[in-house]
Amino acid sequence: MFNKILVVCVGNICRSPIGEYMLAKMLPNKTIASAGIASAKSGLVGKPADKTAIE
């Protein structure tokens, strides 16, 4: 059906990387990636993920 999944959020520092990780664990035979739509403009480049998300 499909072999690639792209998880997208705004900054790519929290939601989409978490989604990428979880999907990669659940679907090991698929290619999973994450991306942000406005990471450079949002001022989030180089920032860590939210503390709650890391926990």
From TrEMBL:
Q: Which residues form the active site?
A: 9 (nucleophile), 15
The answer to whether UniProt assigns keyword Transcription regulation to this entry is: no
The keyword Iron appears for this protein: no
Mind telling me which Gene3D superfamilies this protein's record contains? 3.40.50.2300
One of the entry's Gene Ontology molecular-function terms is: protein tyrosine phosphatase activity
Supply the alphabetized keyword list.
Hydrolase
Q: Which SUPFAM superfamilies match?
A: Phosphotyrosine protein phosphatases I
> Which parts of the sequence belong to the Phosphotyrosine protein phosphatase I domain?
5-55
What InterPro entries is this protein classified in?
Ptyr_pPase, Ptyr_pPase_sf, Tyr_phospatase_low_mol_wt
Pfam families according to UniProt: LMWPc
Which family would the database say this protein is a member of?
Belongs to the low molecular weight phosphotyrosine protein phosphatase family.
Q: What name does UniProt use for this protein?
A: Low molecular weight phosphotyrosine protein phosphatase
What organism does this protein naturally occur in? Vibrio hangzhouensis
